[in-house]
Predict the 3D structure of the following.
Amino acid sequence: MKFTRSIRLAEERGITRRRWLSLGAAWGASHLLAPLARPQTRRPQKVVVAGAGIGGLCCAYELMKRGHDVTVLEAAGRTGGHIFTVRDHLMDGLYADGGAEHFTQPGYDLYWQYVHEFNLPYLPYPRRPRIMRFINGKMYSPEMLADRKVLAGFGLSQREIDFLTRHQWWELPLLYYQPYLDSFTDEYRPFNAGLNHLDETSFTSLLRKDGASPAAIGFIGSETSALQVLWYAAILKLRGVPLWPPQVFRLRDGNQKMTDAFTERLGTRVQLGAPMTAIEHGEAGVTVSYRQYGQDRKMSADYLVSSISLVQLRQVPVKPDWPEAKKRAIHETRYYSLSRPIFQSRSKFWQRDGVVPNLDFDEPALSSVWSMAEEVPTERGLLVGSASGSADPEQALATFRRLYPGKSEDVEQVRMVDWPNDPWASACERVSFPGELPKYWPVVMESVGRIHFVGAYADNLNWGMEAATRSAHRVVEIISRS
């Protein structure tokens, strides 16, 4: 009875009964996080996977293991997409993750299974403990952000101050999330929570209604629909993950070791320098046009798995055209993109200064920095960071020097991974959907005929490497059941 009522509510929001029922098995597969089992398929399929980021590589690897005939077409000259470990021009064996930064436990459940399957060494990543935050140009330690006088100076209410004296600064949203989160019982079905009316109001408006102070609204408010904000927080709670996990991990010698492991096992099934240029699809199969070695080529298959970003997919002609709902999701889903500043220094000067290197500046030219490659035996130091959009290396360094609280800074070179200008991997993770949620969810991850969609954008929580692998497993299960 409850499920029937949920379907009726969803239909009122534009989601048909057929879509609910057809996606039920796929959602169930996404929850199967037991040790990986790979039964051989009874009916091997020929599958083209467009894009060799972690989602495409994972999908191709799992299809291969189940006996399918797989070809991966990657536009760039390397695999990995937004997972990229920088080594060139760095000295003494130093390296930096230029894209995907870290993974969590819990939260990255499928990803951890591959860490163990491929026997990839990993390290705790001390980039979040004791983070120093700049607020209104002034630096605050975790202790200061639990001090009643400091919190009162921000203009927070007494209720908010009392909460933050018992919780971490990043937990402030939970004060206003808590009354709603237990309404979500299935992380893939936000419309079951009975909160659909909150899709019509912003989270800022909900905060104001629920008595948040103007200061708290300034810190945590958002014009995103309140339903989306609460749904994302509920997903984390259902997975047992903090809003902002303070303990994270990375792979020793760089996170690219994961995508390299997939690539090595796929071997010649991966073709580089082969951008997809057109798609034709019908009831019997899919034909993919692509360009390689200066020549136009075509490949026919039973299925196409598109694991390129929607930014790239918008540029690929498709015949027949996408259904209107899918076309809207493809063209209106938005991403953010960051640059990655990398500072190599002559020494680990922050240790000499007694400064924690985890600094949150919240400035466009340099939003944050932290140390990396601590295990490399060298006197040199390495700081990596994030910056908004297509940042300038000199501006990033100038921002660091202006705000760094110590006196011994000795940065000797700056590198910048400029993702916004990357021709094939400019988009990072999906941001909140614009406007009414049912227009985008679950349509953004639904297949169209024999075309399936993989990537961090094609899962409920756009958590990079885990979301990509979850979406890959969902598609593998659908194809293997066909």
